[in-house]
Write a structure and sequence with these properties.
By secondary structure, the chain is α/β, with parallel strands linked by helices. The protein has a single domain, classed as NAD(P)-binding Rossmann-like Domain (Rossmann fold). The protein is built from 13 helices and 9 strands. The strands form 2 sheets. It has a 7-stranded parallel β-sheet with strand order 3-2-1-4-5-6-9, with helices on both faces. Helix 2 runs antiparallel to helix 3, helix 5 packs across helix 6 and helix 11 crosses helix 13. The longest helix has 22 residues. Bound molecules: NADP nicotinamide-adenine-dinucleotide phosphate (NAP).
């Protein structure tokens, strides 16, 4: 394996970020991975343990940091993994993480889908201003290409899209509809992606975008993220239909690989829908119920996403770049096995 250039992954300790860091290290890249709290978790644990156990706390605390799973990755040794603490609203912290990197993968963004009290502060500012801060730092550092992680949430909800046309990269979430209905996560992803395209155009920065569906699969970090929590709740019997959030699922490893494909293929441009298929939450739930009858998965009406046309291979742009998507069945099996083996669910 030849040693490659340095790249920066914002949100490197998250669900998708951890897989991306693992694949990049495996390909020989040097990775600058950013986390929100490099030290504070350690300090909190350290203080608690120190109170209880005295000196031994120092050793134990180092083992409990949110970066332990990154440090344990093959290739993390020999300075090929560098960790940086950033705050998306602090340009200086972002500059420090990006300096020296040739490419940037911008994943960090708040993933809060319910109980939003202050949308501006909790979601919109970090998503939009954070993206602009990352792009500005990339431009100033002479970065060659930036991959921005957007979402299907920048594609749906889109109520005025023609009912007989399959949704694709030309479809955009209706931000006014989101604001009127207080659906803040899609608003944040859409405004952030639009800001990225505007910045790229005005500043001549090479930006390419991946729009993943609902991401599931093996979990590397010590806790589960919002999309794996959807599966967790389904297995627990929750009957929420996610009418404005769901459009299909995708394996977490495929999402990480899609980021690398669009980074490495200079011909890749624009948005890239990244889903195994366009499906309704009801399709996903009934497949989970079929595979895992021992869980109390609820029954849903046939169409949980009113007006969403199903499609077998909608991610044509990524398939043309060589992507082979895991099936929905494999996504579910890998995700449930991970939840069970890590004792998130039993
Ligand atoms: N999961 C999905 O189904 C899905 C689908 C489409 C798109 N996406 C997008 O994929 C990206 C990664 O999501 P994920 O699923 O991997 O979720 P995740 O595990 O919650 O990762 C989000 C990451 O963003 C970081 N972050 C959030 N706010 C930050 C802030 N103010 N400053 C610095 N870092 C901040 C978090 O850092 P810490 O871990 O250090 O807190 C975390 O690493 C996000 O942009 C998300 O919108 C996810």
């Amino acid at each position: 394996m030849s040693e490659k250039e340095s790249v920066c992954v914002t949100g490197g300790s998250g669900f998708i970020g951890s897989w991306l860091v693992r694949l990049l290290l495996g390909r020989g890249y040097t990775v600058h991975a950013t986390v929100k709290n490099l030290a504070s978790n350690w300090i909190l644990i350290l203080l608690e343990l120190e109170r209880e156990f005295g000196d031994r706390a120092v050793l134990w605390a180092e083992d409990e940091g949110e970066t332990k799973h990154l440090r344990a990755m093959e290739g993390a040794e020999a300075s090929r993994l560098r960790l940086f603490q950033i705050d998306l609203l602090d340009p200086a912290s972002i500059h420090a993480a990006i300096r020296g990197a040739v490419g940037v993968f911008h994943l960090a963004s708040p993933c809060i889908v319910d109980r939003v009290h202050d949308p501006e502060r909790e979601l919109l500012d970090p998503a939009v201003k954070g993206t602009l801060n990352v792009l500005r730092a990339a431009k100033e550092s002479g970065v060659k290409r930036v991959v921005v992680t957007s979402s299907i949430s920048a594609i749906v909800p889109s109520p005025s899209w023609p009912a007989d046309v399959v949704k694709d990269e030309n479809c955009w979430t209706d931000v006014d509809y989101c604001k009127q209905n207080e659906i803040w996560y899609p608003a944040s992803k859409t405004l952030a992606e639009k800001a990225a395209w505007e910045f790229a155009k005005e500043n001549g920065l090479d930006v390419v975008v991946v729009n993943p569906g609902t991401v599931m699969g093996p979990v590397i970090p010590p806790s589960i993220n919002a999309s794996m929590a959807m599966l967790f709740r389904l297995l627990e019997g929750c009957s929420e239909e996610y009418a404005n959030f769901y459009m299909g699922s995708v394996h977490v490893k495929d999402v990480a690989l899609a980021h690398i494909l669009v980074y490495e293929n200079t011909s890749a441009s624009g948005r890239h829908l990244c889903v195994e298929s366009i499906a309704h939450w009801s399709d996903f739930a009934s497949k989970v119920a079929e595979l895992y009858p021992e869980y109390k998965v609820p029954r849903f009406p046939k169409d949980t996403q009113p007006g969403l046309l199903r499609a077998q291979y909608p991610s044509k742009k990524l398939i043309e770049l060589g992507m082979e998507f895991h099936s929905m069945e494999q996504i579910i099996k890998d995700a449930v096995e991970s939840l069970e083996s890590k004792d998130f669910i039993s």
